[in-house]
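Problem 3 from the worked examples.
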Amino acid sequence: MIRMLAVCAVLLLGGCARLRKPKPVPPKVVVLPPQTPEVKEHAPMPPPPPVATTSPPATKLPPEVVQAPQPEPPKVTPPPKPAPRTRRQPAPVAANPTPQPPPAAGTPPAPPPQLTAIVSPEEQQRLNTAIDQSVKNAETDLARVGDRRLRGQQGANLRRAKSFLRQAQETRGDDLATALALAQRAETLARDLAASLR
């Protein structure tokens, strides 16, 4: 029995030791004094032995000193002076300016100029032919639909196709590319509408 208690006590104490986290040990900092490099003194070297020469000793001339030319300092030019400002003279005012009459209340202001692409005569011919073909196809498909009673989406598509045809004819004189796009939309809507009624 005592043995069992001893074994249990050892196991319990051993388990507790495993569950405990060891305390972190702070790192030891060792400060070393700065080291000075050791200087070893060497014995002086003996002078080289004299060299025997057969030529007569030359007279020593002082070395010629050549001075390098001094670079010239860069020339600093002051920045150019700005031109003096001149005052604008106000535009002359007419003695009796004629006031512009205000636009009439019922007339809308002139529309701003529109930018259009410059199209060659060949391109104009091609666009006009394509517009004519799309308009003809759309009108043929709309004639097939006739006066049928259409409901919901079919009625909306019929109104859109007719609107696109009208807009294509209106813009044809100003912008051929836009007119072609509108005619093609009308053609597509009319074709789909006619196919849905077969």
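Problem 4, a separate protein:
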Amino acid sequence: MNAKSLSHLFLSTLLLLLLLISMGSGRTQAAPTSVRINAGATTSYTDNNGNAWLADQFVNGGTAYTNSSTLSGSSPAPQVYHSERYGQSKSSFAYNIPVSNGSYTVNLDFAESYVTGPGQRIFGVSINGTQVLTNFDIFAAAGGMNIPVAKTFSVAVTNGTLNINFLPGSIENPKVNGIEVVPGTLPLPVA
């Protein structure tokens, strides 16, 4: 073997070694995927846009409830608003949703089906330990009963679990109808 052949063999072996090293152990993190939860529901379903909604799961505390109220306004997922999870006796409840690390957009879906005016249900929500809703009033935000309203937040998950806590406020119980967790990008910090 001449020097040129040895040089090519050495370079080929080096490139192969670098490729194998760059591939690591073969374990890669799964790409972030969407999770939609129909809070309080006992069965999963597919909405008008073809999105799959899971039955209520990954939750600690609270009480499931279903209603037959007619929804005012439109929603691609009207069935979501016929079930809910609420914190009975002004207690908190939490969803601990397993997801891949990454950036997500979280939509919390609400419709007020019980109280009949503003100021009659006030509560808070925190996501991954950060308060995102304080003194939230579904009726006031939606403009009435049985009207869907969504609150949207950008979050980063770094430990494989998205934690959403629904916290009692000054009156009535915290509640939620649906949770949508969709891969997204976080906004750039303001300089």
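Solution to problem 4. The mean pLDDT is 86. DSSP finds two helices and 14 strands in the chain.
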